[in-house]
Amino acid sequence: MQYDPIKRSLGNVFNKSPFLRKTFYQLLDLLLLRAWHVHKELKTWIKQAPAKASILDAGAGYGQHSLWLNQRLPDATVLAVDVKEEQVADCNTFFKQIGAGDKVKFVVDDLTTYVDANRYDLAISVDVMEHILEDVQVFKNINASLKPGGMLLISTPSDQGGSDVHGDEESSFIEEHVRDGYHIKEIEDKLRSAGFTKVEARYQYGTPGKISWRLSMKYPILMLGVTKLFFVILPFYYLITYPFAYLLNWMDVMMKHPTGTGLIVKAWK
Question: Is the pTM of this model over 0.85?
Answer without folding.
Answer: yes
